[in-house]
Structures are given as C-alpha cells and as structure tokens.
Amino acid sequence: MKRKIYLKMKSLREAEGLWLGRFSGKDLVGDREISVSEALGRVTSEPVYAGLSSPSFHAAAMDGVAVKAEETYGANERAPKRLRIGENAHWINTGRPLPPGTDAVIMVEKLHETEPGTVEIHAPAYPWRDVRKVGEDVVATELLFPRNHRIRPFDLGALLGTGVLDLRVKRRPRVAVIPTGNELISGESAGLAGAALEGRVVESNSTILAGMVTQHGGLPVVFPIVEDRFEALLDAVRRAVESDCHMVIVNAGSSSGSEDYTAHVLEKLGEILVHGVAMMPGKPTVLAEVAGKPVIGNPGYPVSAVMSFDCFAAPLLRIMQGLPEGRKPSAKVRLSRPVPSKLGIEEFLRVHLGRVGNRLVATPLPRGAGSITTLTRAEGIIRVPELSEGLSPGDEVEAELLVDERALERTLVMIGSHDMSIDVLSDLMKCDPGGYRLSSANAGSMGGLLALRDGTAHAAGSHLLDEATGEYNRSYVARVLGDRKAALFHLVKREQGLILPKGNPKGIQGLKDLVREDVTFINRQAGSGTRILLDFRLGQESIDSDGIRGYDREEYTHMAVAVDVKSGVSDVGLGIYAAARALDLDFIPVVEEQYDLVIPSAFVEDPRVRVMLKAAASSEFRERVKAMGGYDPGQSGELWMEMG
Predict the structure, then answer these.
(1) How many Cβ atoms from other residues are within 10 Å of residue 492's Cβ?
(2) Over the chain, what is the mean pLDDT?
C-alpha cells in the first residue's frame, strides 16, 4: 500500500467550507414523534402550535372575592359598600375559574368582614381586575415554538399547559466511532492484563469521542478495535456506513505512515473531500463522503483527535439537529511568554489563564498532540493564525474559555520551578469554600521570577542556589525584581540527587560517572534551579559538562526526567527523590535544597494567596508531602524574608 502524502492540504477555513458546504441543507437524520416527557433537549422538526388556550378559562389572579365590577361602583371610604357572600360576592382562590356572571376579583387584603357572610369594600373594582383572561398567555393555534428549537425545562410546561402531549423532533444523530491500531488494547483487557502492557496502549480516544458526541446531542456507537489491516478497516467502515448511523469517525490511521489505511479505504468506498488540514494539532484529518454519509478520518493523537472533532464533527452535528452555530465564550488575554509558530499552519494553543492585577494572563502549556493533560489542565485555547509566525509576550489575543470566566477571578497564577508539592497545594485550595483554584505552569525558577517581574503571575516557586554564598533565592530575587517589594515563604526542603533505573545496572556512584562513555544523561532546562545546582556541583568536582552525553537534552519537570530514565531513554538524571520514588527508581542523594514561594508584596494579602499560604501551613499539607518521601515541610507556609 502506497503512503498517502498530503499533496492537497487545505487551510482550516477551506476545509470547513468544503465539509460543511457538502452536507448543509440536507436532512441527514430525519425525525420522529415523541411524548413531551421525552422531549427535554430535543430539537423540533416542525412548528409546534398550542392545542388549548392558556389559561383556558377566566381565572383569579389573586385570593379574594369574585364580583361583577359594576355592582361595586360608587364604593369609597365615606360610603363603603357591603357585599353578601354567595349572592354578589364569591370567595375564590388564585387560579380558580371565575363564577358565572363575575368579571373581577377584589383582593382579600382589601376586604373588611363586618359580620358573618358579609364583606365591606372601600373602593370599586373595574372589569377584569386581578383576573387572568382566557388566552392571556397563549391562544389555541398560536405558535409555541418554530422548527429547530431545542426544548428547555420550562418549555415542557408550556407544551403540557397548552394541551400538546406529543411533538415531532429531529432524530438524535447516531455516530459510529471506529478505533484502529494493532498496539491498542481495551480498558477492560488492560485491567485483566495488569502491568503486562509492554508495547500496548490502552485505547481511550473512542471514550473521549463518544463523550463529545453525547455532549453535542448525538448517540455514539463505539465499534470494537480494528487492526491495522486494509481489508479489516474496509469491512468495518462499510458496516458502519450501511448501519443506521448518520456519521462515521475512524480514529487513527489518517496519517501517511505505512499502516495508515483510512484515506485508502475512504477513497475506495466514496469521495475524499480533504486529506490534510493546515492546523496543529489535527493536520492528518481526512474528510469524506461515503454513500451520502459524512465520514471523518480522525487523527490518533488524543489532542489532535479532540481538535479535529471540534472543527468538523461538532459543527456538523449541530447542523444535523438544526441548531445554530455554537459560539463558545471568549476573552481578551495577554501572553506571558513568546510562542513561535509555523507559518501557514493554524495552531490551537492550550493555555493556563488567570487574572493578575487588571490583566487576564495566558501561559502556554506544552504543545504535544499526544498530551491529553494539556487539555485537562487548560483554561483556554488560543488560535494562532496561519499567516503568523508566532506571538510575543504582552500580545493581546482572543482566547476561547474552557472554564467559567468568574472562576478565573478566583484563580491564583503560579509560574516557576516544578515540584510535586504544588499539586497538593492545588488540591487543598479546591477544598476552600471560596472556590479558589491554583493554576501552575512549569517554566523553571528563573522563568518564575521573570514572570513576577513582568506582572504575569501572583507567585513563583524557586530553588535557585547562590554559588557564592550557598544561600537560596534571595540574591536572584533581588537581581530580577530590583526594588520591588517581595516576600519569601518556606514551602519545603527536599532531596535532590541522581535518579537511576531500578537496580542501578550501570553501577553509577556519583556525578563523576556522568562523563563515562556508556552513560547517557537527561538534563533540566536552562534557568531551572536544578540546572543551576548541577552546574554548581560539576564545578565543585571539576567535571566538564562537554564530556556528559545528553547534557544538552532537556526536560521541564522532575517527573519527565524520571520517566526518561524509567523508559530507558537515559541512564541517569538529576531530580528530586519523590519523583524517583513515584516510579520505583533508584536514587543517590546529592544535596538537600530549599524550595520557596516568592510572592510580590502587593499580592500577599490577596485572598487567593492567603488561601494558598493557609493550605501550605496546614497539617494535612505537611503530612501528605512527607508521605511522598524526600521532603521536609516543617516550616511550610512560614514567612522567612521580606525584600525591597
């Protein structure tokens, strides 16, 4: 099978136009009649008219007595009128029909009972006062809802109240989801296999896509995993198209690899409209029509799969149901750091968001298409235009919001060095009844201080060692923040050392072994406290970094370093003990270091910061952090220095 290369890649706008233009205006799902009790969230396929007037009789709008208005004329304070109950006045409750011959209600508060069976009034009533007349709300045969109206809870009351018991609605689109890949294993099988998943991947994209189908009003039909074989995929797609499904999504196999058959299958069965979209993530998307039905070849990386669905499946599902374009809430945000981008590709950038001062600040998350946590952790998505080579710090751009904008007002933005104790802080902050959140981005200790300088964060995590004094953080804070006032709070002391594979197969004993020809190292990024610590210790032991294989290879977190070692890509890395312990790796201690929270004085009394510091000083935080190993949180949350 020849590789399918993207020779006719379309821009996102072109691809959307071709795709939606092909299917817009067609009735792809049909309709059916259902009872009102089933109608919540459904979309009307034809106009709905009232069967009865509402109210269907003249009804009292207040508790009191029903009267004929003209019999009350002339009543005033000096010459009140007396009415006899059962003769020219009739007790009535709100909502009840008016007795024959009456046309007004006098509120009970305006009645004076002079003797049993007699009431006195001091003002006249006028016709239809405090009465809901027949059809006041809606008249029989009047339009209740036009076609393509989504039924809301209060619409159900209007339907029943006007005698409509059944209505015709659009069928919910049924969407076939076909996962493909020889390396995939179902979640149920993975549970049975336990840890024996060598070379296999738990299939999760179909669950994500099925959830998104449901979220957009459709009914997902998930097929069994299909192996990477042309005939197998051809049979699965043919069965899906011939079923009662209205749309088909084939997940994975849309790229140009030797086992990516989706485009070949769709070309054989129908017409390919687009293969390759100038978007990132989501470039390998295939859009096709087979037997009159829309079929999407959806990329295999999770973030690509989600973005492709959002751009092509979601709008078509809305069209199928006759719903208007779903506009997501957005806000103007400012970038906290530069974002280079490829010219000619529209990029969907996942970002952390939070309000710092009077600005909504966006901090980019990692950009890998396979990293689903960049979506679970994101508060927003920024579209970088295809004609842009990137964005600069301070640029104001539009961000699609993935959380309620009010939640961003209660979000504490932390940028700086990665530490696992920050996750504990985040969890404890969510327990506060004020609904506060912590949004943290890993940019290294120096990156965190620069963010404080630029006003794009409330706090920074830092463990920068001053090689001249052996003290942590103070000199760097003074250098970067200058005369600005800041407070340094203890968070933890932690063990930094060499992270090694279980059993230490290469017998590494210390830093001097890093220059061995058979040892590959994984480093942290320049500007991180761990990188500064490494360079300091290499200098102490007269070790030339040029002789270390892998010194220029960088990761941004301690866990990423540990994963690199665990996977066998590297033989050793420098990181914290808690990361080594979490992945059951060996560890050689090098130093106990100090990790602090640096907070500009202007934010110290901010309620978000107070909640974080309260959480840091709590016994629960200290107990949970100690349990991770390699930590001393004995002074967590305590102020140890004010500067500026």
Answers:
(1) 31
(2) 91
